[in-house]
Amino acid sequence: MTVYEKIPDDVINNLPVKHFEGEIYFISDKKSFDEITPWLKNAEILGFDTETKPAFKKGVTHKVALLQLATSDKAFLFKLDKTGLPDVVVKILENKNIIKTGVAIRDDLKALKKIKHFIPGGFVDLQTFSDKFGIADNGLKKLTANLLGFRISKGARLTDWSKKVYTDAQLTYAATDAWVSHEIYLKLLSLDKNINIITES
Fold it and tell me: Less Cβ crowding at N or C end of the chain, within 10 Å?
């Protein structure tokens, strides 16, 4: 497998576009937790992300609206303004034995702590992890292209995530971001020391 230090845009543009195709669980009330709790408790690795309503004015901030956790075939989207951070979710976020992996997760965790204080455990930032492999382009979109060989759409990035109802496309976008974080982590784990990294001349 060839991995780029800095993947060229023309390489990315020629890749196919993919999105999460597994089951999406949208959790907007506490009754939904009974169904999904066993999946979360038994997971060893979870892709992690959050979504917040975009702020277009300086100094304006919004509360985190959505928490996404994903395995290879299931994505759990928590509507935080409806559910808050229930104890079952907090225990997952604190559990050192369950890996939660995402990109630039520090701000995500800060935002979640404003809802309910917890002590994060088992978190891996893919940007730090990918540095060990000499990968300089470490945003989610470029890591996906570089390591997974496909593109992800960022068309729903400016969604008003504070609204009550999401379209199927918005749910798929949110699920995809967490899912690719899960898959990137697995790919990095699989790479050996003989990996061929292409550096810029």
Answer: C
